[in-house]
Amino acid sequence: MDVEIMTIGDELLYGQVVDTNSAFMGQQLGRLGLRVRQITSVSDRADELTAALDQARARVRVILMTGGLGPTKDDLTKHVLARYLGRALELHAPTLAHVEEIFRRFNRPMLDVNRQQALVPSGCQVLHNAVGTAPGMWLEDGETVFISLPGVPFEMKKLLTDEVLPRLQTKFNLAPIEHVVVMTAGLGESFLAEKIQDWEAALPANIKLAYLPSLGSVRLRLTGTTDGQPSGYDHDLRPRMLALLPALRERIGSYIFAEEDVPLEVVLGRLLLEKNYYLGTAESCTGGAVAQRLTSVPGCSAYFRGSIVAYDNDLKTSLLGVQADTLAAHGAVSEATVREMAEGARARLGCEVALATSGIAGPGGGTPDKPVGTTCLAVSTPAGTVSKIFTVDRGRATNIEYTTQVVLQLLWQQLMGR
Amino acid sequence: MDVEIMTIGDELLYGQVVDTNSAFMGQQLGRLGLRVRQITSVSDRADELTAALDQARARVRVILMTGGLGPTKDDLTKHVLARYLGRALELHAPTLAHVEEIFRRFNRPMLDVNRQQALVPSGCQVLHNAVGTAPGMWLEDGETVFISLPGVPFEMKKLLTDEVLPRLQTKFNLAPIEHVVVMTAGLGESFLAEKIQDWEAALPANIKLAYLPSLGSVRLRLTGTTDGQPSGYDHDLRPRMLALLPALRERIGSYIFAEEDVPLEVVLGRLLLEKNYYLGTAESCTGGAVAQRLTSVPGCSAYFRGSIVAYDNDLKTSLLGVQADTLAAHGAVSEATVREMAEGARARLGCEVALATSGIAGPGGGTPDKPVGTTCLAVSTPAGTVSKIFTVDRGRATNIEYTTQVVLQLLWQQLMGR
């Protein structure tokens, strides 16, 4: 079953906004076994939107639209859709009550344009938008399903998940698919692929493997379908997928940090809690990026103590206790210095575990000896201190992001004893 | 003149990758006065790509493609394009020499698939890709220009800027447009619009205003065109645009932090250098996010000393010198505490200026008195210490990002004496 995603709004075409909605929708539709045939971004002009609907309809059976449902005069989606399908706009009383309630709650005067948010094309199934004023809409016309959602990402996500996906599943009697995700870090996609070549080649026809790489990490996603078993849901599918994992672990176990879809910082938090360790960071080149990533996890105060960002060398000495001799002999970007930074952080922040970073993020500051991208990392635990040095330069922002990833990997290896 | 952006690759449709290329291309084309009529993302299947090309050709005169130029068998763009336009693939000797040189430099064996990167459709203008192995291509067929660029963002950006935009400008003899950007912070889009209503209404017809909002900040962009003056470039356009600014300053001057397109952290860096002040941060709820944003600026070590992320309350005392009494009497999330944090950071980090954050980022940790989203900020300078408290909850990640923005705004106000 093919779907077209249509995102509507001049701001997308001008590049004022990056279209992140489409990727989210593509992922969710894919999990249901639907194929996104095309993503089309069009303007707020009625004739262009109508032309795009006409072409999409010839391609797919489901058109999933976002955007153009706001109260201002740019927002045409509902009007164009009603005209295109020859429907009148009708007042939907429960939506009007919901909009009025929102305005009451915020104590704002309600204008006529706001009241118009409760108008929907006749024959439409209204998808209740609990978190906003523009309702979602589900319209069927002949063989085609037209779905219109607001463009505000959190409103779209909630409506898609709660209202749209279950309706699609029912309407098209979709065979459920199962996903098993394995998170890896520390080995590139092509090297992973080489190591698991034989395992991948032996996968049954109804189980597919996808490599989803990001900086320093690769997500492996197995998708199992009940294709060829139209008799309904295959209760053995998931157990059969999980039974493939031991052989995967044999090949790449030392790079697997989770067998579910969670980021490394969440896995680290669980390990730290389990071991009853507090963590702190001593950062130079990452400038707080490691602490920021660790503190993105709700509840991290149960294991994260804090951080000293010693951008200035004097602070490496005064706040972290790095010896002036070490700095003089080896420089700030050296394994000797990061080791002392990590050990100093353990003492000064009062944690069992600390990590440290120091490097030349660029674009300036490189020398022939230590070019831009030279980076030193250390992790100190009750079992001792380890450090490493590497040089990769892919621009300042990526250098910082990559260093953050690699030092968290090193921490994970130390906590796991690998 | 209308352009269609076409991004090619299954990974876009599955949502494995967010299409950031389109927004960049849309911005750049817009600056040239070209209008992006549609953005189309299609799969790696030859028939679907061909159908999309056919439809795009009926809509626009320029089709700008990215993706599908790699060496693997998924990468079909070049082959489909050659077949679609009835051209043979020919070896382009300078590209082959360039690819060979890259393989020599990395000391990697060169395979036949790599050699094939030097094949291009006959009659094509090759756009030299200095930073990768896949060349860009410019093909004209009848009235239509087909441009194909690699999908790797930094390769695409370089080719677009260096090769494509100048060719478009020449080919279509585009009247240059002028942009004047004014950066504001601290006032929402609708409030800004209200304050400058009369000024906006009085803009000449050839100068348009766009509001480009982001969290806590609004970019105002004036776009001036020489429409109606076909005699060529209007040398007075930019001066006439700049002459509009004094009246804008009268209305919203206290919210304008720059009259060029630069982020707040860059403006802060310039101000600190000018005043010869060092800066440090004391962070609780932002967990290092403020330091990270400040250190995203190349050369920041000239004015940024470091940061103490005191997530744990004990560290607020031991590292920042917050009085135990203050914490006991007012709690960690209080104006009294953040003031002491900022003042402590000035002393401990050895800086003239410091800022501090403490709040409940959520989702847990709220109380009836201090619900999730309660946030306290302080900025301490030689002129004294100021603080503020507010409550907004839009989820943990947004709460942290917004707090970071607001504390940098407060710092800017203090440095400007506003």
Main beta sheet of chain A: 6 strands, mixed
Low-confidence stretches of chain A: none
> Ends of chain A: how far apart?
45 Å
State the shape of chain A.
Answer: globular
- CATH superfamily name of the largest domain in chain A? MoaB/Mog-like domain
What does this structure look like?
- The structure is a homodimer.
- With about 425 residues, chain A is of the alpha/beta class.
- The first copy, chain A, folds into three domains: about 1-170, Molybdenum Cofactor Biosythetic Enzyme, Chain A (3-Layer(aba) Sandwich); about 180-260, Alpha-Beta Plaits (2-Layer Sandwich), CATH 3.30.70.2860; about 265-415, CinA-like (Maf protein, Alpha-Beta Complex).
- The first copy, chain A, is about 40% helix and about 25% strand.
- The first copy, chain A, has helices at about 10-15, 20-30, 45-60, 75-85, 95-105, 110-115, 155-170, 190-195, 195-200, 235-240, 245-250, 265-275, 290-295, 315-320, 325-330, 335-350, 395-415, and strands at about 1-10, 35-40, 60-65, 90, 120, 125, 135-140, 145-150, 180-185, 205-215, 215-225, 255-260, 280-285, 305-310, 355-360, 375-380, 385-390.
- Chain A has a six-stranded mixed beta sheet, sandwiched between helices.
- In chain A, α2 packs parallel to α7 and α12 runs parallel beside α17 (about 395-415).
- The longest helix of chain A is centred in the C-terminal third of the chain and has 21 residues, at about 395-415.
- The two termini of chain A are about 45 Å apart.
- The mean pLDDT of chain A is about 90.
- At the A-B interface, α2, β2, α3, α13 and β14 of A face α2, β2, α3, α13 and β14 of B.
